[in-house]
Amino acid sequence: MTGQFLLAMPGIGDPRFEHSVIAMCAHDEKGALGIGIGHRVEGVGLHLLLNQFEIATDGVPDAPVHAGGPVEPQRGFVIHSRDWSGSESIDVAGRWALTATVDALRAIASGSGPSKWIVALGYAGWGEGQLDEEMRRHGWFVTPGTESLLWETRPEARWREGFSSAGIDSRLLAASAGQA
Asked: Which residues pair with residue 78 across a beta bridge?
């Protein structure tokens, strides 16, 4: 599922993931890692993060910081366009890149970084086979999504638009499945 989006189904059963949109950055036999891009961290903006690293904020918009997931919520990640790459950046299925070092923040602040980016704190992680098991139950919907979902859609609209890009009206989804 690397390079695709996970959309939390209604009734996923974990309030931390209600209406979540997860940009999947790695998924293999050892596990999976994704970054939440559907919810903002209240009271935290890019300027606050830059100030913590003593990086000047002149000319940099104070963009929202996203709740990347419940694992290591103090750790920062930048999902960004592939027109910039730091020494620790990884390419995600040729669709975007992921960097977890302060180099990305420095580049963004200096104007020499990627043209498109999303900053997040924390990540969603799954151990060996865990996500595959969750996919067999009522929990997640996977979609290739679109570039506009990642870069142009407001965070609060990404969940609805993610389903829409797959031809699904999210208003018609039920929180539980029936039994025959």
From this structure: 99, 119
